[in-house]
Amino acid sequence: QVQLIESGGGLVQAGGSLRLSCTSSGRTFSSYAMGWFRQAPGKQREFVASFSYRDSYTYYADSVKGRFTISRDNAKNTVYLQMNSLKSADTAVYYCAAQTSLGAYSDSGFYRYWGQGTQVTVSS
User: How many of the other CB atoms lie within 10 Å of CB of 4?
Assistant: First the structure.
């Protein structure tokens, strides 16, 4: 069983930055596919960014390319989401997800393990 704990959310003004963290309890974290998703009120959960399984290629949603960066520190079992130039449209609950296989990294249905979510609110 893999447990994921997110942190780092909060309230920020438009144009500001936040860094989200997601720490895993898994023993083979370095090989996990890891993803960040978000869900705004009244909307479906959407893909933000991910690392692929084992080789850690990165993928981004078009809406965050050039503004958000996913990274990982395998020694700390932690994946990060650095969010810059934040917009009001980025306001959502952000979720970390993990899976121990190859698959569709931008598809929420692919991931088996999920964190509890952390709220990000961007004020305009």
Answer: 22
- Give dist(CA 49, CA 59) in Å, integer: 5
80's tokens: 């990060």
Each residue's pLDDT, cut to its tens digit, for the chain (124 residues) gives 899 999 999 999 999 999 999 999 978 888 899 999 999 999 999 999 999 888 789 999 999 999 999 999 999 999 999 999 999 999 999 999 999 988 889 999 999 999 999 999 999 8
* Residue 46 neighbours by CB under 8 Å, 6+ apart: 37, 38, 39, 61
* Three-state SS annotation for 6-75: EECCEEEECCCCEEEEEEECCCCHHHCEEEEEEECCCCCCEEEEEECCCCCCEEECCCCCCCEEEEEEHH
* Pairing mode, strands 10-13 and 118-123: parallel
- Please give the Cα distance from 95 to 108 (Å, whole number): 10
